[in-house]
Amino acid sequence: MLMRDDPLAREKVFRDPVHNYIHVSDRVILALIDTPEFQRLRRIKQLGVANYVFQGAEHTRFTHSLGVYEITRKMCESFATNFPSRAPGDGLWDDNERLVALCSALLHDIGHGPYSHTFEHLFGTDHEAITRRILTDPSTAVNAVLKTVSPDFPEQVASVIAHTYPNPQVVQMISSQIDADRMDYLLRDAYHTGTNYGLFDLTRILRVMRPYAGGIAYEADGMHAVEDYIVSRFQMYQQVYFHPVSRSMETILAKLLARAKVLYEAGAFAQDAPRLLVPFFEHDFTLADYLRLDDGVLNTYFTAWCTESDPILADLAGRFLNRRPFKSVSFTAATADQLPALRQLVAAAGFDPAYYTAENDSFDLPYDQYDPEAANPKTQIEIMQPDGTLSELSTQSRLVAAITGRVSGDKRFYFPKVMLEPTSTDLFTPIYRQFQAHVVNGRLK
Amino acid sequence: MLMRDDPLAREKVFRDPVHNYIHVSDRVILALIDTPEFQRLRRIKQLGVANYVFQGAEHTRFTHSLGVYEITRKMCESFATNFPSRAPGDGLWDDNERLVALCSALLHDIGHGPYSHTFEHLFGTDHEAITRRILTDPSTAVNAVLKTVSPDFPEQVASVIAHTYPNPQVVQMISSQIDADRMDYLLRDAYHTGTNYGLFDLTRILRVMRPYAGGIAYEADGMHAVEDYIVSRFQMYQQVYFHPVSRSMETILAKLLARAKVLYEAGAFAQDAPRLLVPFFEHDFTLADYLRLDDGVLNTYFTAWCTESDPILADLAGRFLNRRPFKSVSFTAATADQLPALRQLVAAAGFDPAYYTAENDSFDLPYDQYDPEAANPKTQIEIMQPDGTLSELSTQSRLVAAITGRVSGDKRFYFPKVMLEPTSTDLFTPIYRQFQAHVVNGRLK
Amino acid sequence: MLMRDDPLAREKVFRDPVHNYIHVSDRVILALIDTPEFQRLRRIKQLGVANYVFQGAEHTRFTHSLGVYEITRKMCESFATNFPSRAPGDGLWDDNERLVALCSALLHDIGHGPYSHTFEHLFGTDHEAITRRILTDPSTAVNAVLKTVSPDFPEQVASVIAHTYPNPQVVQMISSQIDADRMDYLLRDAYHTGTNYGLFDLTRILRVMRPYAGGIAYEADGMHAVEDYIVSRFQMYQQVYFHPVSRSMETILAKLLARAKVLYEAGAFAQDAPRLLVPFFEHDFTLADYLRLDDGVLNTYFTAWCTESDPILADLAGRFLNRRPFKSVSFTAATADQLPALRQLVAAAGFDPAYYTAENDSFDLPYDQYDPEAANPKTQIEIMQPDGTLSELSTQSRLVAAITGRVSGDKRFYFPKVMLEPTSTDLFTPIYRQFQAHVVNGRLK
Amino acid sequence: MLMRDDPLAREKVFRDPVHNYIHVSDRVILALIDTPEFQRLRRIKQLGVANYVFQGAEHTRFTHSLGVYEITRKMCESFATNFPSRAPGDGLWDDNERLVALCSALLHDIGHGPYSHTFEHLFGTDHEAITRRILTDPSTAVNAVLKTVSPDFPEQVASVIAHTYPNPQVVQMISSQIDADRMDYLLRDAYHTGTNYGLFDLTRILRVMRPYAGGIAYEADGMHAVEDYIVSRFQMYQQVYFHPVSRSMETILAKLLARAKVLYEAGAFAQDAPRLLVPFFEHDFTLADYLRLDDGVLNTYFTAWCTESDPILADLAGRFLNRRPFKSVSFTAATADQLPALRQLVAAAGFDPAYYTAENDSFDLPYDQYDPEAANPKTQIEIMQPDGTLSELSTQSRLVAAITGRVSGDKRFYFPKVMLEPTSTDLFTPIYRQFQAHVVNGRLK
Q1: Most CB atoms within 10 A, among A149, B430, C348, C392?
Q2: Would you call C20 and A207 a contact, using CB atoms and an 8 Å cutoff?
Q3: Residue pLDDT, tens place only, B247-257
Q4: Does C195 touch chain D (CB under 8 A)?
Q5: What are the recorded GO MF terms, alphabetically (chains A, B, C, D) (predicted)?
Q6: Is the ipTM of this complex over 0.90?
Q7: B18, A193 in Cβ contact below 8 A?
Q8: Which of B392, B387, B388, B91 is nearest to B213 (CA)?
Q9: Is 0.90 topped by the overall pTM?
Q10: CA C84/CA D363 separation, integer angstroms
């Protein structure tokens, strides 16, 4: 049964706190939502460990993925109504692209696993490659559903996500400096964290978007709404995504998994080995192995590890589950030379610095112009003037110009909280004092 | 170190999407939040399976517990400012009760486990008894922290939760027909489900609450805010908590756990037995066993069971994880006699009715007057007139009167979706047709 | 130029805090908004004097009228998409009705003047008759615009507002127990007063509305959203529209205008007579006279009257402008016999009871079933079951049943605040004490 | 009766859509709200003509003034709790300053008249001087109330508003680059316009504010909340306050009043002269004359002028009341030389360019560092590091640095809409074409 032109008898809706309702009128979309690979996203938090800082951030990649779908659906609807293509090559919207856009939006994150960034870094997994496999591997339910549209539809969706799909409008909907993915996560993360930095006027942005031959542009009288979106994104990175305590919890997670791997390799687990992680410890995993993981699986192992005999593993597992973060200070290239001394002090205070200290760099490029020389050239945001000419956003906005092409973030050094505690009668007090002498106003002197 | 009068150097705040900020100024509260027993609530969803229907309902008992604490803190603050006791027995607020009220609020749900109601029903656990044990058992971190206030403080907190604490104001703050628990969950569940049924004017209710000798009363000019709260609660039960599809997912969960228990008892698990569940299968569990469970642990087993050899276990596990709910119809005492016939039809269609059909009754008493004869007498809501006389709420509000003392809800019969599917070429079509002949407008004829 | 099928080149939007954007795609709608008769609504507050109690209630009939238009537009859009008529008489939606529905929605309040209800009561004006004249009188810009659609279009719009238009779907959109008018004012008044009583789920109601031969019905699975709307409306009446202090300010306004009329008739104005009011004092006004009035015109006279020589006029004008309300007590048929005595006490305290006391009844019928015997039969709300049968709302909702067919409200007696002031050294203290002896808990004993 | 330490028996609250409740516990504040001078603010819109563009902007200076009061009250409460002065000169908060701060906040706008900026420009009135007179002139009710606190209290309040009060903390609460006035209007204007540009985290800013000897500083970990406020303010100016159509309506208002003055001076009014405006036409007005004006008074004259015999006056009055704005183009110093030619074309098209063209410059300095050389030196925003050192905001925030010390805005040229209309058969078409040849993308070429 080919599903390409197979609408539902009546539109279905999903209630959503961010978009109010999410509208589904294609049978294939409903079938994709119902696949095990997609339902699995209900068990993977969108923001990993951020709920340790912003307690409301308990939402998952499932709700985010539906949100990205919904924003993309609204884009298609607006384009089909206001800018329908009349002739091939006229640069307007060809509504035959709708289904590939919707499926790409819905599935763009399907390859994510639990605590993605930390996990990937340690085990060398790659969520983009896995997304591609989920789409194109005949073993998955997602692939089976996509093939009901056409035999090459899975590859088409994969190529949108890989940015190689020929229609730049479709690619930019899903992945560009102002795409449905980013717009949903800013709004959704703001809603759940209870911050308002991520708010911007989605309705207005959708109103001023328009297709053109090169992709998607924004009408000039909506420039400020686009500017506000860029500023919101910048602020969310500074205030939420790069929060020092979130990064602390990620650091602990990374150290915990690293320790588990070392113990596994040494055959030193007292309890059963963590069966579902073994393929990753051994760098030899199947897609099925990967799809079995979620936040709960990892936390279940961490709970078990709290009573493992290795004191470092047990302590780090307890720190992670029970939120006992490391403290941190920021440092720069100029002050980084103090780090060896600080690590020695941490060691002198009784902590193995390999597991109880860490450096963490968090940097983001909030917006950039197109630069063909760049390692990773960005599709810049184009503002369309009434006469049809295009101007790059940062030439129109002083606020955007201020952050264009400049990475934002900081480097931090993490260590146990006790190192910063005020003088007590503790044996180690002289060591703590020495440590504290390096620090002022939350940074290395 | 006794913590009773041990304030933090500077108030701490937790950001919260519902209350904006949660304010903590007592060291003991912070210490309780940091216990493993309390942090564990981050891994237990507040609404169990409701996110299968209202996808945003991914919030946990952790954030709810902090919310209940915050509302109680506001009550204490208002009482201390506006109605401070001047002499024992004057019926006003004694601020020495503040700490026991705050701790009781924070910890009132600490005994909950994963998918509480379903789990309890099957395994005979009792979250209230477990709450008491967590508070009073010397093995827990919670108990250790509470004892820093005074040796009998754990018992005091437990007695508030058990409604036996002598001060009725404290008890009613935490548990009555209009308490901090209900007020937080209505607001929070409304926020995350994206419905507005649960909204009411918390600020106004807090303004018109006042202590009196018998507990807590509400000033007459706030009657409508109290009425609105009762109506909101009624509507949330009808619209969210009793949603037929949520109950379907709970039904599947119950059948799944029941099947697992049967297989365990029969020694029929092909894979390893689910070690963390064994103490519950055997009805012989310790507090530590209980505290090791959370949503993720159960889901991890369910994932494994999807590939178990028992087809019923595997199918039910997949239904639960991948959201393939049963369908249902409502029935009454008058139409219940059709259920045996329906079960036979389900069996004839190839499903074991012991696992593929279920009855589910969901009833709630939205509000009631005090009735000393009742099995579970309620503390009624008292409206205080300007001259100090009290009137029971339902005598003041026609809307509340309409739902007072009357349970609301329905009985539903659950079965596989295919039984309701429109005629096809399926072998079983005649059976489905027979089944469908019993049903009209979502109920048994 | 006929405008019937004359869309704008590109849809225009008006930003609105309640609906976010209001969408206009018909040239005739834009032309109607631009008429002087419609722009005049910017100068007439929606809630008259309610901002004296809920200070944010400063919004006007202009924004409300656009809101009613927008809700109606959404109804038409949903009907055209989901329930398009295929053959005459099939009971589905004929999109040729769209323009008459939109114009009726936009213009339904065009006949309102300043402080409508009070003004009408005193001067015998009738905003419904005036609406009709504005629509159909060739002197108005509104009529000129409507005639560009067709010569009989003004009459068609007028007949919708008069409930005599043949298509009951169009009539019920604009005027029924659940119409675009009420839905907008509940949401808008809630937004501006800052209360949440008026909130309900507009999106869901729009989703479950459907045309049928008899008008508009609501699908059964949306029953609770409709119930919630009815309850919201009931609560707004109780809490906002019938607020005793709003009614006090209305009472003062009525007395003030009555006094002015008496003075005019007596030729006793010391300053110039209030020229723009003279036609109303003389019960002989033209449409142009009426259209010249607005809140500002009346307030301008009131400001002048503060320095008139008549002490009652000057005092009442100052009370109205500077918010010095009368106090009130509620009374019933059983306690009404005390009113003459109370009036005498007010007189004894030095106030003319004709101007300084008043009775005010505020009653509303929140919802009713259809009753052909009733003076003003209501179109009841019909819930459509899956098999197409209709059930009247109150048979489906216990909450609605509680308020169906029963008027809600109270009778209050108004008088100067000093009558309730606590004993002082005032000469009149014995009189005040006598007065106060009649009152307990805000009502007559 | 001295009111300094005269609290109300029980706190009063005013419901407010922006702050939810406004809390009043001082008798003097309630008495000030009840004065005619303050109640008059109910009749003066906060944003003048902005509701012609953002229709919801119908709120008044009354609600804004209460909002400024409420934010100031929260500042005082936080300072009194967290930073109470222990000894004179310790730079902490002396709660004896509370009442002068609250009264200054409440009354800071009391001298505003209708359509303030336009009116002042034409008639040379000065709302700051009038504020001072209302506070200190024995004829006002405000002065009488303030004197109940102490004989010199009116002067104290006036000196706060004039920035000459000795305590810089009090002055900066009311008037600085981040004061209660700006914070309220950004939130309130955002609420009523329905835009979200003006939103920022007021609660967090209040939490990180702290008094020091030089005024008010912000703790370093709240820097981003302060940054967000500055960016919000910048965006509101760009998007709302400087909207070209609002400025068009202001332009029309200015021309209308100018024409009326000319006619008055020429004795050319056909109807009665506008009595309440005469003192202003003659530049000889009393405080009482000024206090008699409000939006409604002016609009009442404008309504009358629609039928005056002077065609320019009548047309401009109609344009203003019925929203028929001029169109505009932006220009720069480089393109300003085309303006004479454009004015000639407007004249050639039949419009008197003195009344039908205008230049409008709107510029704002969104934030600046302290510069003793500046004409109007600003109190810069100080960020306090953990060790107590201060850093000026723009050194900490890249976004703020981008807009520091640089005025934002544009110059626009206004003219009748017909000049931009597309070619028609109009006699003047060649003139319009010539005009349009100067314009591209909304600016002069």
Answers
A1: A149
A2: no
A3: 999 999 999 99
A4: yes
A5: dGTPase activity
A6: yes
A7: no
A8: B91
A9: yes
A10: 53
